Amino acid sequence: MMNKLTSVVCLGSALVLSACGGPEQEDGVELARQGARLTTASSQGCDYEATTVQITTSPPQYNVVVTRTGGASCTLTTGASVVVQTVPLSPPGTVSLSGSSLGLAVGFTMRNGWSGSAATVMAVRGVDPTTLSTTRNADIYCDYMTGNISTGSLSIASNGTTVNASGTKACKINNQSGTYWYASFANFFTTTTPPNITVI
Questions:
Q1: 7 lies in a domain?
Q2: What gap in Å lies between CA 174 and CA 2, rounded to an integer?
Q3: Which candidate among 24, 43, 105, 149 keeps its CA 20 to 30 Å from the CA of 3?
Q4: Where in the sequence is the signal peptide annotated (predicted)?
Q5: How far is residue 64's CA from residue 191's CA, in Å, rounded to a whole number?
Q6: For every residue of the chain, which 3-state class applies, written as one string?
Q7: In what order do the strands lie in the sheet with 163-170?
Q8: Does the residue 184 lie in any domain?
Q9: How far is CA 1 from CA 4, 10, 12, 20, in A?
Q10: Percentage of residues in the chain having pLDDT higher than 70
Q11: Edge-to-edge strands of the sheet including 46-57?
Q12: Are 152 and 171 in contact (CB under 8 A)?
């Protein structure tokens, strides 16, 4: 009976997870490291950082900026930056930045227009690490722009060419219901092939 009661208590509260044999909550330092891994990347010998900067307050607008921060073998100008996207009304979701020898991939959710009812989409951008120009715009959005992409992040696969993005949604994509979505862009940096999207 005691074992059953303990199981119920452990399932009922995340705060007692460590006491029930689960992992302890991560401290602020580890969470900061995880955030840094999402917003920093390397490509072609240089390091890069993605940040969000509010540029106006009325109406509010935000710039998603990629900046070259240096690197031990980097021969390009440190401190050079580019605005990847200006986002209206609401700040973009957490920005993901990933790099390979072919380029940088940037991803974030954003409101897709100035209307208060504008849908939220997953923005996926390709950036040339040398020129810092945007080489690809590939948004993921709900059918007919009805509903919202709630969360999203991305990474580059180990082959250096495939970009994978995933997150949650409150809508249908390709007429498929489900909370979770997953998109895979084959040869992201060298083609404009649409992603293969799976909904769970």
A1: no
A2: 48
A3: 24
A4: 1-21
A5: 24
A6: CHHHHHHHHHHHCHHHCHHHCCCCCCCHHHHHHHHHHHHEEEECCEEEEEEEEEEEECCEEEEEEEEEEECCCCCCCCCCEEEEEEEECCCCCCCEEEEECCEEEEEEEEECCCCCCCCEEEEEEEECCCCCCEEEECCECCHHHCCEEEEEEEEECCCCCCEEEEEEEECCECCECCCEEEEEECCCCCCCCCCEEEEC
A7: 148-156, 163-170, 180-185, 196-199
A8: yes
A9: 5, 15, 17, 16
A10: 81
A11: 40-43, 46-57, 60-70, 81-88
A12: no
Q: Is 3 exposed, middle or buried (0-12, 13-18, 19+ CB in 10 A)?
A: exposed
Q: pLDDT (tens digit, 9 = 90+) per residue, 14-34? A: 333 333 444 444 444 443 343
| Distance from chain centroid for Cα 171 | 19
Is 167 among the domain residues? yes
- At 28, list the tokens: 């602020």
Is 169 within 8 Å of 149 (Cβ atoms)? yes
8 Å CB contact between 125 and 137? yes
pTM check: above 0.85:
no
Tokens of 7: 């199981």
Residue with the two structure tokens 């209307």: 115
Higher pLDDT, 33 or 199: 199
Residues 145-185 have pLDDT tens digits of 889 999 999 999 999 999 999 999 999 999 999 999 999 99
